[in-house]
Amino acid sequence: MGILSTLFSPVNYSKARLWGVEFEIRQQLDVVHELLKDFTIGGNATYIQSYLNYLPSQLAFQGTIDFHDKTRPMAGQPDFLLNAYVIYDNKKSGTAVGLFYTLTGESLVAGEAQQFSPVGGIVPRIVDKPWANLDLSVEQRIGKNWRITARAKNLLNPLIEQDYVSKVSNTELLRTGYRRGVDLSLGATYSW
Hints:
Number of domains: 1
Helix content: under 10%
Distance between the termini: 62 Å
Largest sheet: 8 strands, antiparallel
Number of helices: 2
């Protein structure tokens, strides 16, 4: 078995827990004024907690490096999600515009390796840092059969970071960072 397969091997756990709470709100703005009847605002907030218990062999290994966590988060599960949107939808003119914002919390990519690394100590966990996204969608009906659609995704084009996080030494170090770029599309649909 090579050094990388020793350091980075998947482990399936028999038990894990995931729980959360979500709050959602949606309101058409005609309650403010009749002129705003085509506008809707809304959003939701989700708080998520996930964890799994380390295996006995992992706990024994942790004792050799004076690290005593009994649990860690589940991989790929963000600790929160926030979404907000505003939509304009005029049925008479056939115009629809939506602006959508999402903030995704920190999530675990890979847990600590349970073997000593080539440089000593424990290989730290890898986490995706929180990042925000903003999308815009515009649709226009033309006549009875045509619809033109324009979309702009990832308008904020944030730096998406993945960090090494060491619970042992209480440090963080950038592993990788990149920008996905803005995605623009234009389409036409004919229906009969």
